[in-house]
Specification:
This protein is an alpha/beta fold. It folds into two domains: about 160 residues, Aspartate Aminotransferase, domain 1; about 210 residues, Type I PLP-dependent aspartate aminotransferase-like (Major domain) (Aspartate Aminotransferase, domain 2, 3-Layer(aba) Sandwich). Helices cover about 45% and strands about 15% of the residues. It contains 13 helices and 16 strands. It has a seven-stranded mixed sheet with strand order 4-10-9-8-7-5-6, with helices on both faces. Strands 12-16-15 form a three-stranded antiparallel sheet. Strands 1-2 form a two-stranded antiparallel sheet. The longest helix has 28 residues. It is globular and about 65 Å long. It starts with a strand and ends with a helix. The relative contact order is 0.17.
Length: about 400
């Protein structure tokens, strides 16, 4: 990855170019795949792909030819997939539209519901594509804060940031990067307040299934300004299927559907057939996720509690979901820190700069037990060493 550079006084690291979250992931994966031994990625944002289960699902479904789920998706959702989603999320089929992943759903929703020059109000810290896609579609982007350490959502704070040009508010639930859950009563309060102001609420729910106590979510029939987005990438680790969906109702769904019918012809007939077959076997795939998280979460919480006690990080416990976003005590440039952790300790986390909040790192902990323990041990050791060396360099300076 090139020449060395100084990221903090006296600390040299391998140079890695981070421009956005996607660029960072690309470069981090490149380092891990480059043959450098022992790198551990604490940056994954879902359980690992259940490849053996997926192979068995495909084999069973297609063993005697194509299954009933293998249907046209031209200008419509796969009917079997829509029914499976309806059953899983208690959502009428008429309020479901399937897409090529959740990111595609976001990209389609903006021009379907908004006009060029409209303002999109986005959470910060947050996933960068929410703002990037709005900018690319010719919308104005503004931000409201979800404050550490709890990253809770405040309806009053959101409303204070509205302007006469605001036509959509974008939130994630569970929150990316922190994993925090917004209770449905707070979301309902926000949705109703925005409805009275003729503003849409887009809720990215790709992590929602990781919260064991998560309830069904807002009913688009009751809140017609709400658009909910989900994906099989996160809930089952099945990014390979590129299967996402939009939940909406009434005129909102009509506008979404009309736009998708005009511009979106990328949905895979095969992938969405397989997605329907996966959902037909959802208990097994849910057990894969739940089993991983029941093992990983206590390990992660114990490690974070120890790091907090040692004043390496500040974090709200217990953690929720499969990611968290602790503040690194005393370190503002977490981009430099993240590079250094890779180079010196072989552990990969996501710098907070990728989510609009320097001084934090996003940690993904949905790993196998042995790898998770080793990765968290390396992280703690690296943070301790970095703090000491950084403090020494500041005294010398």
């Amino acid at each position: 990855m090139g020449s060395a550079q100084v990221d903090a006084p006296g600390l040299k690291t391998d140079e890695v170019s981070w421009v956005s979250y996607a660029h960072w992931v690309r470069d981090a994966l490149g380092l891990i795949r480059s043959g450098a031994p022992g790198k551990i990625g604490l940056f994954e944002s879902s359980v690992r792909e259940p490849t053996a289960m997926l192979a068995d699902t495909v084999s069973q479904a297609f063993r005697h030819g194509v299954p009933a789920s293998y249907q046209s998706v031209f200008m419509r959702s796969n009917p079997d997939l829509a029914v499976r989603l309806s059953e899983r999320y208690a959502m009428p089929v008429r309020n479901i539209h399937c897409t090529t992943g959740a990111t595609s759903a976001v990209q389609l929703a903006y021009p379907a519901l908004l006009n060029r020059g409209d303002q999109v109000l986005v959470e910060r810290p947050g996933f960068d594509i929410f703002a990037n896609y709005a900018d690319d579609a010719g919308m104005e982007t503004a931000f409201f804060e979800r404050k550490a350490p709890h990253f809770s959502l405040s309806t009053d704070m959101v409303l204070q940031q509205l302007t006469s040009r605001t036509r959509m508010v974008v939130v994630s639930n569970l929150h990316n990067p922190s994993g925090a859950l917004v209770p449905d009563d707070e979301l309902a309060r926000l949705a109703e307040a925005l409805r009275k102001r003729d503003v849409y609420l887009l809720v990215d729910e790709v992590y929602r299934d990781y919260h064991e106590r998560a309830v069904p979510g807002l009913d688009p029939e009751q809140y017609p300004n709400v658009v909910r987005i989900g994906s099989m990438t996160k809930i089952f680790g099945l990014s390979t299927l590129r299967c996402g969906w939009l939940f909406a109702a009434g005129e909102t769904m009509a506008r979404l559907k009309a736009h998708c019918d005009r511009v979106d012809f990328s949905v895979s007939k095969f992938s969405h057939s397989v997605a329907a077959e996966v959902l037909a076997r959802a208990p097994a795939y849910d057990a894969w996720r739940v089993g991983h998280m029941e093992t990983a979460r206590p390990i992660a919480e114990a490690a974070f509690e120890d790091m907090a006690a040692r004043k390496l990080i500040e974090i709200a416990l217990p953690v929720e979901g499969c990611t968290c976003f602790p503040k690194v005590v005393g370190i503002g440039d977490t981009m430099a820190l993240s590079r250094w952790l890779i180079a010196r300790h072989g552990v990969v986390v996501v710098p907070g700069e990728c989510f609009g909040m320097a001084g934090h790192v996003r940690i993904g902990y949905a790993l196998e037990e042995a790898e998770l323990r080793k990765g968290l041990e390396r992280l703690a050791a690296g943070l301790s060493e970095y703090q000491q060396k950084y403090a020494e360099s500041q005294r010398i300076a």
